[in-house]
Amino acid sequence: MASYNYIPVPYNHSPIAIDEHRWLSLVQSALSETINEEDDKVKVQVCIFFVPKGLFFLKPEAFMPQLFAIGPYHHWVPHLYDMERYKLAAARKIQCDLNSLSLEELVCCLLKHEQRIRSYYHKYLDFTGETLAWMMVIDASFLLDFLRNFIVDVEAQKGKQKISQWETSRMKMAYNMVIRDIIMLENQMPFFLLRKILRRCRQFSSPKLAEEQLSQMLLGFVKEVSPFNIIPSITSIDVNQYDHLLQLLYFMIVPKVNEEELFDQPHEIDLTDVLNSEEEDGEKSVGSMWKMFNSVWNYASNVNKGATIETIKKVLIKGPIKILIKLPWNILTSFPGISIIKQPVESLLCRGSVKEKDDDDVVPDGKNSISKPPLVEEITIPSVTELTDAGVRFMPSNGDLTTIRFDMQQKPATIYLPKVSLDINTEVVLRNLVAYETSAEPGPMVFTRYTELMNGIIDTEEDVKILREKGIIVNRMKSDKEVADLWNGMSRSVRLSKVEFMDKFLEDVNSYYNSRWKVKSKRCISKYVFGSWQFLTLLAAVALLLLTCLQAFCNVYSCGKRWFYVKEE
């Protein structure tokens, strides 16, 4: 795993001294100035946040830039300010490309959009308008100069000389550290600033050409940084739809989808049908009555989220079975010798029924259950090794996170997971994607649930080895143990939300795993044999004592001759 030269600095939520007169001057100037017409048409939402403290303090070096500060949040950090000369060199390169326009004139252009720039940032920016504009011009120039290294279009490679300069200086500029700094949530740069600078470069005759090159830069960077395979058919990006790099990467990995369509996929089947089909492989045709019963059963299972079918099971199945079990037991325990053990045995066996009764008392509420966060049991999932021992196979899927599914119809049952490539930059990318989703996205936290899923199924390096051999994990790190530590270090987010297709996946996997006879027998042995070793030891000691007493009694009173017939030869 990557080692970082982290220099601790105070976290940016600490209180700062405010100059009241300066604050009053800023407020009055902000209220009195006229709003730019172009900015008035664009509705800007806050999209650059500070990382939530619950995530930040788990691993600060994954969220604090180590080499370059992009934007205002970390601009005055001492060890980052030392690298300002590299950013000034990039600004001079951009100045040479500007079409008869100096950096001072470019700063004046950005000053007209001061309020729009401030609107992107969640925290109040304690800078004057001119300072902020100069800062953005210099940082945006550095970012553009670095992104030119990722141009994927053949025609755009006319600036090959500049790219080769970056190639030769990768070690000097700490290439991977720059990538990690650029992708951090607190280090983002609004795209509209990059567009405005490129449009003023002399090599672009129209704004459309400038946006096309920016699209190629961003697409090349995303493909380089993304741990997942970006769809090959994507050849360009509409940069107007995204606000910054991390947001673009997020939506390349987690596209906006309709949760209901994923949840109501037609290929879903009942687990009981799958288990029955495994036992009846020889039967290729099913009678019409059985088909009708299956249709009615599946329909009843979907009504009120399964509450109807559970009621039928309790009345028609569980009730008669309990009567059939209790009736012989009551008759048997009425005998004098056996009635002594009635209470201990019933107290041992009734533990599960009490829990079941408590679960039955819960009234399902569809509307409230959607808004409530998932339970711990819904997040728990067996490890890769345990699932493999239970007969489950793992296969890579082609696509994004929405391709995660569990196919119980296949033999053996198969879990499909997207292919993920892990290298020195992956942990920073994953953690900042989780931080962005937690801070900025109001919808279901799909990516966070994915990291929790991988955290759940990977416990040891043996789990990583299985996924690596199946082609799901591409390991470019030192060992499988580092990969296991990476996923196990991904803690749960500061908030949980339900993700319908992911929750259905977890439910199906857990139900299938818990229904296997191999798993049931192992749990039974663990619970009633290994878990009751104290009781079994006591029982063995009592039995040994009784046998010793019986032997002593028989030695004195000759039990064999008195009570047992022994034929003398």
Structural key phrases:
single chain, 569 residues, mainly alpha, 3 domains, 3-stranded mixed β-sheet, two-stranded parallel ribbon, 57% helix, elongated
The fraction of residues assigned to DSSP E strands is under 5%
Give the neighbour order of strands across the main sheet. Answer: 1-3-2
Secondary structure: helix percent: 55-70%
Structural class: mainly alpha
Query: Which outline best applies?
Result: elongated
Characterize the biggest β-sheet: 3 strands, mixed
Average pLDDT, to the nearest integer? 76
Q: Tell me the total number of β-strands.
A: 5
- The gyration radius over C-alpha positions equals 33 Å
Total of helices: 29
Distance between the termini: 83 Å
Q: How many domains is the backbone divided into?
A: 3
Unreliable spans: 1-11, 153-165, 261-286, 348-370
